[in-house]
Amino acid sequence: MKSRKLKKLIVMSSLSAVLTFNSIDTQATESSSDDTNESTETSELLNQDFESVVEAPYYQVLRSWESEGMRDDSDFEAVISPSSFSDFEETQLVSPDQSEGYGRDVIRFENEESVSFEVTVPEEGLYHIDMDYYRLNEGLIDPELSIRVNDELQHFESRRIIAPTYWENETDDFETNRAGHELVPNQVAINEWQNTRFNDPNNEASEGLFFLLSEGVNTITLTNARGSMLMGDIRVYASSPLPTYTDYLNSIDAQQAEDYLEVYEAELPAYKNSSYIRPISRKDVNVHPYDPARQLLNVFGGDSWSRGGQSVTYEVEVPSDGFYHLTFKTLQNEKQNVPVFRTIEVNGTIPFEELKQYRMVASNDWMNQTLTDEEGEPYSIYLEEGTNTLTLTADITPLSPIVNGLNELLQEVNTLGLSISRLTGNQPDRNRDWVISEFIPDVEDRFTEWITLLEGYAEELNTLYGDLDIETTDEVSLGLIISTFESLREEPNQLPNRLSELSEGSSSTTQMMGDLISELQNSPLSMDQLFVHSDVNQLPDPTVGFFTQVGSKVREFVASFTTRTFDVGETEDDVLEVWVGRNQQYVELMQNMVDATYTAETGQEVILSVMPNEQKLILANSSNQQPDVALGVSVGQPWELAVRGAAYDLRQFEDFEEFSTNFSPGAFMPYMIDDAVYAMPETQDFYVLFYRTDIMDQLNIPIPDTWDDVLAILPELQRYGMNFYVPLSGSAGIKPFMFTAPFIYQFGGDIYAEDGMSTAIDSEGSVQGMQFMTDLYSLYSLPIEVPNFYNAFRYGELPIGVSNFQTYVQLLSAAPEIRNSWDISVHPGVVQEDGSVNRSTPGSAQSAMIFNQSDMPEEAWDFMKWWLSAETQTDFATNLQTLYGPEYMWHAANLNAFSQLPWDEEHKEVILEQWEHLEEVPKIPGSYMVEREISNAWTGTVFYDENVRASLDYSVITANREITRKMEEFNYIENGEVVTPYRVPQLETVEEWMNQNVEE
């Protein structure tokens, strides 16, 4: 009833809006006073600024503070010990003898606990804060906290302060695999007391965050946001400027070192603050060490050392106190002609101002970069006798003003695009003429301001990059955006028909700006060696001669004929051959685990190979060149192989049903024909509800549990120019089953008839699901096309919506600024008669299968059980993220393994709950046509206002014709008669064998 009333209200509101817009003659130059007033009111509505619903970003707040002269360069410093904290439980206080060597009382800080302390400052101003901490939690999660000053979050970045974990190699003697290639060593967290200055998660402010403290007493509250740690002293202090290089030299009484040169390999750092900044292998005679036949870990960094704030520390030794020069052998050819910046610290401090954001020149070949002044004179840097530390930190601070400006501009362009969409509707009439200036009077001025702003950014970039004669890729991107703005400014009345260039689609200016922002924040650098020396002329040449290079290529070519790789090849009869549908990075780690664990325990040798195109698996089977096992196979491929007799029925193994209880019942559906099962789920996707907690809280909008709840919050969201996202909006062409099936299943519909010989998309429940699925767009105004939900969610345009694992990874790894400002919940569903909520959704990802012609089926099954076991999957997932970064998340289908993954515990609970509703779409011959026809029916209804039931009736005829044809091809139908029944797999069948096994 509530849904029906809401639908009627929205229809009336939409009709009113249409009548309002249609009453305006946009071409008339002379209009009545009523029309003029109406246009003015509409213009004001479209151009109003939406109310801010979250704290302002730090750079805006800092700009405001500095404009009021709030900087404080005094020498104030206050140290607050844990014994002075307040508002904490007695159980949080840890005695000195249990303080992990701190020697004084400390606070155990975890589980969203809070502590407060007071600090008295002599005058109002900006102050830094740092703390001593000892990481307690295991795994990859860094402790995090939020900070309130006088009960206020002063800027958005206050929500997330990270206490980084420091890592070291388990061994610097790199192990090798069976081909002789060196392996990236395991990473070990350093369990020692550390100190960190409070900074933003993007590390866009290399000097650290400022906080505004009032004269007198201030109360600061820290709240645990994630992880666990011991907290020691807190230090509050005023900013003190670094000395210039000249002042630095004058302050130290020491001599320049003479006749000294020491070389250090960059791939062997002492420690780093990210486990996945790693050594890499380059087959390049210019690097050391080098081997034409083997892959040696001989270079440090590259893409893995590209994020702001990532630091690496080396230990160097010198024979005596004195001044030395520092040189780094580097390569930066990933961003053509674009220099990157590194901040240099010596023994934990930046020696002088010029080593902040030091420019590392881009080059297409290896070069020696000596730290020098603008005239090219090497800096003399004081080192103490014995061991010293050198720390290089990726620094994007110089580019932060441009990045922040582009972010603001992107929001302005999105606002303009949204205003025009609200004016013209989702599908504007291309034959209607608009005079946009009547509704947005300053539209041309906006474009002029934006163009001027971008031209200024281009000049700033050129200056930052060193006044290069050649245009960089970043400047080219700015030029393309400027050209588009100039074109749109010339014809503002065409904006309704050119939104794909302005703010919608993959080639829009907003997309180009989003890509440019990401590129500006990317700061890769490869480093081969570092030199501590007394004379630049002592340095070895960074590259070898031409003839040496030619000779090395010849040796590499010859070695390629004998060097073993992970390519598919011949194996011995007693060796289990496994093809893996993933890149070599994954396969190499998997092979290492197989050799160290499975083969060591069982004696069974296993060879893993990178799978060729999986579409060729059928051809490989027909020529008897198939492997024993295939991993990483896409969800639809096992059925295609099984129906052709190429896949092994796993239910033939006695312990299959027992082992299957580790997985979601619904995940088996696409791997079944009748009651036979031809693959095991390896990884598993999930569709859950993502929402911005900051925006939803500020707007006081509840998080929906059902689709009725979603409809109830849409008016409030749309009032603020926001909306709700469903995956249908992210698919411009065919709408796959994974996007349409949830609506059909949740409304009680079916996709196939029970006998599999026809489709059931015209059943009552299916029609209801299709009706709702189309009403979301035609009636409730969901955005029809969203090029990138991640971007829209990150910037608050779509603060809530349904999405999957890919979005989850993107938000965790590429949107650190909102890390504590979003959450997930179960998928919205449909309330059933018994009060339960049907949340059925597909979610299969990749699978593991055994080939029917394998001579070693028992061995293959034993290996598959080992690989898919909870212990192996957990170890693999942990190693993957530790070595390669947080974006390398492994979504194991094994439920026990997934529950142990190094993910947020609350998020895992939500995903596991959603997987209880996992119901993948089975496959039948011709199922692809059913998928296509559902998509066609949706398109006809949403775009061409066709009747849902009529569209489905036409789709049923087309789909059934193809199903019959395919059934004949696979010998289920002969001469129009069913000769072999095809039983569509049922979820109840899987649940029955699982429940029986549990009872036993």
TrEMBL record:
Gene3D superfamilies in the record: Galactose-binding domain-like (2.60.120.260), Periplasmic binding protein-like II (3.40.190.10)
Keyword Signal: yes
Keywords on record: Signal
Signal peptide (residue range): 1-28
Region (Disordered): 26-46
UniProt protein name: Extracellular solute-binding protein
